[in-house]
Amino acid sequence: MSPVRRCSRTACGRPAVATLTYVYADSTAVLGPLATYAEPHCYDLCAEHSERLTAPRGWEVVRLLDSSAPARPSGDDLEALANAVREAARPRGRAAGAGGGGGGRGADPMEVARRGHLRVLRSPDN
Q1: Other CB atoms closer than 10 Å to residue 7's CB: what's the count?
Q2: Is 79 exposed, middle or buried (0-12, 13-18, 19+ CB in 10 A)?
Q3: Cα(70)–Cα(27) distance, rounded to whole angstroms?
């Protein structure tokens, strides 16, 4: 018997790097770092199978981070970054409102509205 634990997936002989456990009462699959010893009701998975893991419909997958692995940005991180970029691009003098031709910086009489770097202009016929 090999001292290296192998992936539990059929026909996969790669070394295991993560352990999968099911919590049936909570409809949750928990994927964490490789357990210190093999449990009878847990599944050891290789890197490829642990990354591609999906749960049945209605179940939640909880991925516990391995403290030695570098953290990847999540969807929430990317959304927060996008919101910060939008906020930084927003003009500073727009506190009076976006609907009026008010006293913004260098107000153009042809300008009706502004959103970010885009402007809506009056028709020259009016």
Answers
A1: 21
A2: exposed
A3: 28
Q: What is the pTM of this model?
A: 0.51
Of 30, 17, 27, 19, which Cα lies nearest the Cα of 62? 30
Asked if 20 and 30 touch (Cβ cutoff 8 Å), the reply is yes
Single-letter code of the amino acid located at 88: A
Tokens (6 digits) for 9? 């997936």
State the DSSP code for 24.
G
Cβ contact 29:55 at 8 Å = yes
The tokens for 64 are: 């516990």
Does 6 have pLDDT greater than 80? yes
Q: What is the pLDDT of residue 71?
A: 63
Identify the residue whose tokens are 């959103």.
Answer: 115
Residue 63 is encoded by which pair of tokens?
């991925």
Q: Is the pLDDT assigned to residue 46 strictly greater than 50? A: yes
Task: Report d(CA 118, CA 40) in Å as an integer.
Answer: 61
Its sign, for the CA torsion 71, 72, 73, 76, is: negative
- pLDDT number for residue 67: 59
